[in-house]
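Project standup — Tuesday

K.O.: blocked on the structure for the chain from last sprint. Re-posting the sequence here as requested.
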Amino acid sequence: MDEYQELISVLPLKTVEYAFAYGSGAIQQKDENKAEKMVDFVVVTNNAQEFHKDNIAKNPQHYSLLRLMGPKMIEKIQCNFAARVYYNTHVNVGKRKIKYGVISYENAKQDLLDWRWIYICGRLHKPVLDVIKPKDDMCDLVTENRRSALHSALLLLPESFTLKQLFHKIVGLSYTGDFRMIVGEDKNKIEKIVEGNYEELLRVYEPLMNDDARLSVMTPAKVIQDGSTTAIYHRLNLLPSEVLNRIQRNMNKAQKRQRDAEEVIFSLAHRHDVAKTVETAIGGIIRPISFSQTAKNAFSAGVTRSIIYSLAKMSKFLKSK
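H.V.: unblocked you, prediction finished:
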């Protein structure tokens, strides 16, 4: 942990509410060497413009030529497009390289609670390293996000399954519909995360599973959930608002009817395509965001860093095929 705190200490931290490290440079994945990887961070700030102002003054080399437009414009680029995250990548700190995304507290809250973009919230479905500890309100948002991930994953599973199957579904949620899983990402990424982090996933999700009266963990090889219509209806109602909005829109469009959310969810709970409907809704949120945020990252990184980053991703993708 000390190494990661030292890496992030190069940033101005007075406006930072929460910072975590994620990805294969921070979290162990099967058959991967963390020490060789670039370390990915997310920084949640209560004042994006002030953060960028201080950071440009302290670390101008972290930014592309966009820094010349000033912190106010960078805040606008961050807070008005794609997943509301502004990334600086391939930053040298000592012997390591880091990449860090900056998001405002309000945008982080919106993603964690509502799954508005399923970007930051998706990273927090999985184990992360809390480099700057979250305050109580942020802790609650992270827990609620993970509870939503559990409900979503359970809706994608049959009545009986294993813990490993559950963790596969949870980890895989944020990759649903992501074009990078077709070209650009390691094909075995989900498996590597689950295999390398099984105990940590258990630590994160066991308390939430224990709180769920409709779920019974008999053994790691046998988990049983209530598959009744009432239980499915209950879980559907607990999905984040953006997912419910997508379900309502998709079902009304398919059936050429206009029904309110409650009627749509009640109807879906009685059908046999719940998993497919939920997965389609989640993918419908992620797909356009994965395109737009990737384009935004390339724009903010600048041409040279974007090419280097893309080549590294493509190399991992080809090795995994």
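K.O.: great, moving the ticket to review. The mean pLDDT is 92. The first helix runs from residue 2 to 8.
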